[in-house]
Amino acid sequence: MKRFLLASAALLLSGSSLAQGQITVYSGRAKTFVDPIVQQFERSTGIKVNVRYGTDSQLVAALREEGSRSPADVFWGNSVGALGELAEDGKFLKLTSAMVRGVAPDYVPDDRSWLPTTVRFRVLAYNPNKVKPGNLPDSILDLPKMTSLKGRIGWTVSYPSFQDFLAGMIAKHGEATTRTWLAGMKALTPKDYKTSNVGMLEAMRAGEIDVALTNHYYVQRVNRLNYPVETYFFKNGDIGNLGNATGAALLKTSKNRAAATRFLGTLVGKDAQTFFLSVNFEYPVIGNIIQPTTMLPFSDVTKRSPRVAPTALPKNIERAQRLLREAGLL
């Protein structure tokens, strides 16, 4: 594996020497993405990294239960919702302006409570053998009108990115519109694959469904296996194209802030960002990273995403979950 470089000096604590000791990272991200970064960081710095894995919700609950006794130095989250919840709880240290310099500004919260590490975009995946893209709606709000797709739509309503998307719809269009959209979608009897986007696209290959609401990188991953799955973006600015970040933050409970800060800097370093892109096709949050030709350039795909403040998603996540429960979908 390509050797990871240390983060630039601008991302490190001013004047700090090589930090020693150990840190504890609570990670909602999968071991596949975390372990290679951790191992290289340990080799490069001599800092031991202990990782506790779990879902975002499990780790949020753990941090709340542990309170000031928590051993965690860093929270590395898979969803803006979880990051926002902990920021609202006052769990995070404010990052310096130097730490977020050069990071995609649209995804940095105004209070600098956490650091974006990658960006994913919501898309509509479709089987080109069954569906013509010209027949798909310009807006996701019109997807419930596609009665020809009744019983042929897949979604993952328990998946954090789907719930973040729904929170974005509430922020942009209001709760009433979102409730109506959910009711219209439910009438099309979509198949719910819970949290398994991979299983959903496997079902598309098997002919069970023709379209699916998912993240862009799942389509990229199955395209390597020659699945009959393509990516459809709605019109520019549509909530169906929502860009959503993963991110990491420094916890106030940190006992080794210099080492924890260095770890965050590594996550937005060039080699780590290239690694995330090559392994999972997630968009980097820094510039000058070569992307596969199968992906839209970051500058293009961001134009398709609506402008929704990073703090708007966590503020509306509980409302989104409530609407799903009221609709009998969760």
Automatic annotation (TrEMBL):
Q: Which Pfam families match?
A: SBP_bac_1 (PF01547)
Record-linked InterPro entries: Ferric-bd, SBP
The reply to whether Signal figures as a keyword in the UniProt entry is yes
Could you list this entry's UniProt keywords, alphabetically sorted. Answer: Signal
Q: Gene3D superfamilies per the record?
A: Periplasmic binding protein-like II
Residues spanning the signal sequence = 1-19
The UniProt similarity line reads: Belongs to the bacterial solute-binding protein 1 family.
Name recorded for this polypeptide: Extracellular solute-binding protein
Q: Which organism is it from?
A: Deinococcus rhizophilus
